[in-house]
Design a protein that fits this description.
single chain; alpha+beta; Glutaredoxin; Glutathione S-transferase Yfyf (Class Pi), Chain A, domain 2; four-stranded mixed beta sheet; 4 strands; globular; Thioredoxin-like_sf; glutathione transferase
């Protein structure tokens, strides 16, 4: 399987962490976003939306990290893997957490931080309130259960941990969300090769933020 990625991307890192958990060997194909390699015709031919991560498995071209996570477990995980069980109710909860990560938590993180760091925009208190509303919801999920979707680690945790690491990249303090902080620290200790994959990539992501025109004002 060819996996087109950039290590700073949290979306790429979530897939790489899950691949390690499944003991899958990805053929890593680095895409240099900083030099616009993703806009070259050779890559656009693979993915017309020219984004990473992108997975090629035989004749399947797949992008969107959460779709890739689900595909890898469905195809290469054990039958009825706890990472993404066949039970419809359990899957519905996992899917809800994945969509929450994509459409709410991750989106609100980017909506607050990206304009500040990359457009030199002032901090927007209303946007921070929305982000913390999402974190409050995640904290509630993790107060009731040790993992995002229940008693077992699932693909939802692999997606969410990459998003929460983005908060660490911008040095956001999770003290107000103790269940999120405890879960996050636990993931660091239990996910295979976490330091190599997510910690190092998060530091690259931090450097990307700190190179933006609004970095001084945002810190």
């Amino acid at each position: 399987m060819d996996f087109y990625y950039h290590p700073a991307s949290p979306y790429c890192r979530s897939v790489m962490l899950l691949a390690k958990a499944l003991n899958l060997q990805l053929n890593l194909r680095f895409v240099d976003l900083m030099t616009n390699e993703h806009l070259k015709p050779s890559f656009v031919a693979i993915n017309p939306f020219h984004c990473v991560p992108t997975l090629i498995d035989n004749d399947l071209n797949l992008w969107e990290s959460r779709a890739i996570l689900v595909y890898l477990v469905d195809k290469y995980g054990r039958t009825n893997s706890r990472l993404y069980p066949k039970d419809a109710r359990t899957r519905a909860t996992i899917n809800q957490r994945l969509f929450f990560d994509h459409g709410t938590l991750g989106a609100r993180f980017e909506d607050y931080y990206y304009p500040m760091y990359f457009e030199n925009a002032p901090a927007d208190a209303a946007k921070m309130e929305k982000l913390e509303e999402a974190l409050t919801t995640l904290n509630r999920y993790l107060t009731d259960n040790p993992y995002a979707a229940g008693p077992n680690i699932t693909v939802a945790d692999y997606s969410l941990v990459a998003t929460v690491s983005s908060l660490e990249a911008v040095k956001y303090d999770l003290t107000k969300f103790p269940a999120v902080r405890a879960w996050y620290e636990g993931c660091k200790g239990t996910m295979v090769d976490y330091q190599e994959i997510n910690e190092s990539g998060m530091l690259q992501y931090r450097a990307y933020f700190e190179s933006g025109p609004g970095a001084t004002a945002a810190n």
